[in-house]
Structures are given as C-alpha cells and as structure tokens.
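Extended Data, panel c. Modelled sequence:
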Amino acid sequence: MTRRKGDGDSGSGLFSVGPFRDKLPGRGRGKPSGGVGWPVAGHADGPGSLVRSGPGAAALDGKLPLFVVHRPYRFHESVPQLLKQLGEDARGKLALGVSSGLPRQTVRAHLKFNSACEASAIRIVDPQGYLADKAHLRVKTLSPRAGRRAPYLRGSDYPVVGILDLQRECGANLLLTAGRALDTSDALGALAAACDEGDQALAALRPGERLALNLTLNAQWLRNPLLRDNLLAELIENRQFAIWHIRVQWPAPARSWVQPVDEELLGGYRVLAETAREHERVLLLPQTGLTGWLALAWGVTGFGTGSYGSNQAFLEESDRRGGKVRSVERYFERQVLHTVERTALSQLAANSAYQKCTCPYCGSLLDGKPWLEEYAGLHHLYGVGMLAAEVAPAAAGRPWSRDVVAGRVREAAQFAAGKLLTGHSDPAHLRTWDRLL
C-alpha cells in the first residue's frame, strides 16, 4: 500500500468518519526508529546524549507526559532554573524537554543553552525547514543570517546527513528530519518525499540515536477529511517512524494566547492523537500551548509551548511592519485555563473559590511593583507544566488521561461562569473543549 509520487491523489476515506479505530496492518519499510515498545540504546550522559532511563526515556516510551519548553528569544537564561524547579515539584510525574530553532541561533548559543538545561531529558534543535516555504504557509521572509546558519534553507539539494550533523553539533539528542511544509495540492507526493527523506535519515543514524519524522502542515491537513486520510494512512504504513513531530499552523483569526475553537481543526487533532495511541506511536505537538495539553486526553505523548506569544503557538506570520503595539500585561490563570489580562485578576481573586498561585514567580510578579514580563512568562510555563504533570498515570490514579483533562476543563468552565471576562480574557475555548471531551 506504500504510495509514491504519481500514484494518484484520491483519498481513501478510511479516517473521515469519527475517531479512527480500525488498525491497518503494518506494512512499512524497516524497523521502528524508537518509541513505544522499541528500546533504543543510550549514549553516555552529557550534552547531546540520549537518556537510558528516567522521565525522559519514559516519555518517549509513552509512560509520562513530555512537556517541551520552546527557547524564548529573551530571558532564555531563566529556563534552566525553571526546568529544575518543575522537575522537583512534579515529583517524577513529568518528563521535560527543550526545543530551539536551529536557524535562529549560532551553534555556540545552542550548545550553551542545551548544556545549561540539565533537567531537560529531551533536547531538540529543530531544523525548521518550513521557514523557506512561503507557498504553503504564511511565514516571514527568510533572513540572510538564518540562511547562513541553516544552509539547507537555501536549496533542496542539501544532504540529509548534513541536516542531522548540524543538530548534533548544537547538542540535540532527539534528531528530526527537515520539517519542510507539505503541499496540499500534491498530498501523496509531498508525503512520499517526507518519508523518503526520513528513510535517508534513518540510514544515517549512529548507534543509540533516535529520529522523529518532522512534518509541518497547514490547518487543512487536519480539517480536510481526504487530506487527513492520506496523512494518517502514510504515517501508519511507515512503521519505521515510531516518533511523529507534527507542527500545524493555526489559521487566522487565531492569535497569541488564545486557543482555537475551530471544531474541525480540533477534531483533526483528536483523530491524529487517537491514531498515534492506537498504533503505539509517540506523537509530539510543538507550539500548541494549552491545546497541546488538551490533546494529552486523546493520546498525545508530549507538547510544546513558550513564554511569548510568538513561540507558544504556531501562528500565521507577516513581513508587514505595524506601528508601535501597546504592551498588554497578561497572566496565565490555571483556574480558567486561559491567559487573562492583568486587569481581570482582581475580579477572579474576589471569588471565595479562588486559589492563589504559589509558584516561585508570583510572589514578585503580583506584589504591586512594575510588571515583570520575564516572571509572567515563567509563571505561564510553570503552570502549564504542572497541569501536564497531573495527567501522568501516577498522579491521576485513573486508567485514562481523558478523565483528568475533562475534569479540569469542567472545573474551569464552572469557575469562569458568571465572571465578566471579555475580549482577550474570555476563555471561550472551554465550551468547545467540553463538547469535544
């Protein structure tokens, strides 16, 4: 059933009705590259090493939720301590990872950051091949500096092994394929090319290394049943790829700190996650924020978010420069599962059921002094990470993560009911989430 360019592009309809449940027979090429049920040898400890045991290895085996912090462009020096604190407070119920964009920093900066993040078991240096593709995604024009740091962005003839070597040099211990954007007009051809690149990368792995098939999609790949069918059929058939790293660009009017309410898009995430779980694949969803946390209920192994609007979700970008934007002081409120404006905090805190955050950052953040953007971002990461830790089987004491996530969503909806939360502070996604759960 393996399809290659020229085989036609009609959808099979296998996945278009409801959650996918019928397992297709595994007829992929080769053995899995690592993940659930497939042990992988570890390297010695140190930057760039693979983890033999502990939360990191358990996460890639699907035993713990993996929380990935995307390296911020400012205040990244605070991330190592944040991860250490999260690791201690989660008490073994959370695996931690970091992810950096390879074209965005020098090799030296990547190594320094990855080496400092000692509590992070998984270290990703994402090639972000999609940055060179404005035809299928809305991204900013590639800068000359990014092209020099990531020469594969300047042409498609760059060798696959070279992309792996660049990640190794930067201290990555989970390697990715390039992650170029997939063309919806040639779905089967695009998927075949991505899998062919993955096969070349598998052949170039060194002993003990793990590889994730890295795909970048526009939202139509999840919203459109035929495109989704093709995507899932190809992923299932190619059993050699046991780890899927899938980034989806949220279309306008999606904006920073606001979760999408498009039920077709969220339904696509659900089918993708449930398919990964049923076929024992590790699914990582970078740049998904709280939507990634929601997807833990459906079978996602890990998700990523950041401390800024530009890296907490994968949104449409533009080269157009606007005027000076008013800085809005925002605060992640766990009780409503949303980032609200600071001005809404007094209304929430006046409720007798309100629970004041006791994270390491809120004491200084909420003491009436000038707002600290750094601490607000760190508080956000800490809060989302601790939410993920609650989903771990050891923490939940229940057979399904869905129960834990659904319970949190309903509690948040009840707490938010009757509050005058408007504009950016309105947790409108809770109603959609409740229906989907």
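The radius of gyration is 21 Å. This feature is highlighted in the accompanying rendering.
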